[in-house]
Write a structure and sequence with these properties.
It contains 12 helices and 11 strands. The strands form 2 sheets. It has an 8-stranded parallel β-barrel, surrounded by 8 helices. A 3-stranded antiparallel beta sheet has the order 7-11-10, with no helix packed on it. Strand 8, helix 8 and strand 9 form a beta-alpha-beta unit. Helix 1 runs parallel beside helix 2, helix 2 packs parallel to helix 4 and helix 3 packs parallel to helix 11. The two termini are 23 Å apart. It binds flavin mononucleotide (FMN). The site of flavin mononucleotide has 29 residues, from strand 9.
Length: 339
């Protein structure tokens, strides 16, 4: 049986990279009876190790950690478009008093070191997005005692995740905030919501299914369980909690009465992500499909925008239910969602 079955509340506090899902947020979700998740994406192995130690200090309950599965880029094919994009955003960087970031074409987000770290420190759950690790890696983590959750955004991805040995498959629908976990980043993500995915995958896959994307109210949670989900993974609903690491500018953008539209866009990172529309998403909707290189180029700009309160140049990752996000302790939000 999956660890999900032993939770008081089968609510997963989504891993949210970029400093949002820090040890405080993860521990608060776990302490409430759900499953808190740390985000290892973009962090160094040393930071990840420190986060694991910190969350263990904060809670005795189960928690997990999430890794980005790297995918090599076709540099020769993508470089001209990336250089063109870098040139286009140079003026924006200057306006923000910074410079365009440097591309690192062979960046794996420290994959091998993080795989080893997970094996050594053995958090109760390890989850992955952006692809499927090899079965050998999944086996190593399982042998260390970890439960392995793999993210899928389509039926074939869900079948592949289950075949690789996932204990749980996380079905992420198009309503989700932040990056779609689509395994092939150059492909257009499937325009399917979490209930649609669940309905098709459930009869075909024998492992527990967690659904993610737009789950923001107790009604959303009831519908997901009614349709056969073993758990829900919520991100956007927790963004405004005091424990969340979301910046002041990010929080202001989520509450801005002038920002009322949500888009799926590659504009900030080169990977499709759900975000509140702003000046940047309108201007750079055609950014090249080159994650993480586009992410690296825009990173100093987004950091400066966050520091300067610039709502038009910051990435405002948000799921379809972002207007229902509440400024309340994360534990209260998790308990209320679970009803
Ligand atoms: C700010 C933000 C960062 C995210 N970062 C990650 C991540 O690092 N790894 C991951 O698997 N999913 C990430 N996601 C997606 C979530 O795991 C989840 O699929 C999504 O939040 C569910 O949709 P919701 O935001 O509508 O609840 C992120 C989502 C947000 C909003």
């Amino acid at each position: 049986m999956s660890l999900l079955g032993s939770l008081v509340l089968p609510v997963v506090g989504a891993p949210m990279a970029g400093g949002v899902s820090n040890p405080l947020l993860a521990a608060a979700a776990s302490d409430a009876g759900g499953l808190g998740m740390l985000a290892a994406g973009y962090r160094t192995p040393e930071q990840v190790a420190a986060d694991l130690v910190h969350v263990r200090d904060l809670t005795d309950r189960p928690f997990g950690i999430n890794l980005f599965v790297p995918r090599p880029l076709d540099r020769a094919a993508l470089e001209p478009a990336v250089e063109d994009f870098a040139g286009r955003i140079a003026g924006e960087a200057a306006a923000l008093g910074t410079e365009v970031g440097r591309p690192s074409w062979y960046d794996t987000d420290h994959w091998d070191a993080k795989v080893h770290l997970v094996e050594t420190l053995a958090p109760p759950v390890v989850s992955c997005t952006f692809g499927i690790p090899g079965a050998a890696v999944v086996d190593r983590w399982k042998a260390a005692g970890c439960e392995v959750h793999l993210t899928a955004t389509s039926v074939p991805e869900a079948l592949a995740a289950a075949e690789t040995g996932a204990d749980v498959v996380v079905l992420q629908g198009m309503e989700a905030g932040g990056h779609r976990g689509t395994h092939d980043p150059s492909a257009a993500p499937e325009p399917v919501d979490h209930l649609g995915l669940l309905e098709t995958v459930l009869p075909q896959v024998g492992v527990p299914l967690v659904v993610a994307g737009g789950v923001t109210t107790p009604g959303d949670v009831r519908r997901a369980f009614g349709a056969g989900a073993a758990g829900v993974q919520v991100g956007t609903a927790l963004l405004l909690a005091p424990e969340s690491g979301a910046s002041r500018t990010y929080r202001a953008a989520l509450r801005s009465p002038r920002h009322t539209e949500r888009v799926l866009t590659r504009a900030f990172s080169g990977r499709v992500a759900g975000a509140v529309a702003n000046g940047w998403t309108r201007e750079y909707a055609d950014a090249p499909a080159a994650f993480p290189v586009v992410d690296q180029l825009t990173k100093p700009l987004r950091k400066a925008a966050a520091e300067q309160g610039d709502l038009e140049r910051i990435h405002v990752w948000a799921g379809s239910g972002w207007r229902a996000a509440q400024e309340r302790p994360a534990g209260e939000i998790v308990r209320e969602l679970a009803g």
